[in-house]
What does this fold into?
Amino acid sequence: MERAGLTVGTAGNVSGRRGDGAICLTPSSTPYADVTPDNLAVLSIGGEHLGGSGQPSTEKAMHLACYNAFAEVGGVVHCHAPHASMFAVAHRPIPASIEEVIVYVGGDVPVADYAVTGTQELADEVVRHLDDRGAVLMANHGLLCVGKSPADALHTALVVEHTAKIMFGAQILGGVQPLPAKTAKDFAGVYAYIRSTW
It folds into this structure.
């Protein structure tokens, strides 16, 4: 994530659901270059620490909430991508004015209400926005994406950050123009179909 410009230092976290249902989560305060299979925190879906030498990320409640709410989700990425985070700090959804972002997210990237990092309140607020979306902004915080795998969720984060850059520039140039309503609806259907195959 750091090489892709989605975060700096040890900020953000990544998790994946294993075939046996356990959740592997990046360890707290560990540079991404130092993350290994041995220090990933392995958790039960209920949050019990099953293995791994690392302490689970402080955002474990948010990751577990995503897996508990959506059986199809196999990967979660939380990052502080700069352009997406600008929208989060401004409490403004990222408009789905590009077809690609609708295919990967399902529509505009919504903004979850502010809640303190690491709390169940934040976890519940994030999940509330993910029924028909692959990404959500957290007010004054950052971005969370879900996917069929960690790699899939990471790809969605890259698409969202790329879209946020474009929307930011378009606003400077005079404003974001929406896609035709039918086009947006049709591409949202593509996202819904893809998610149904996870």
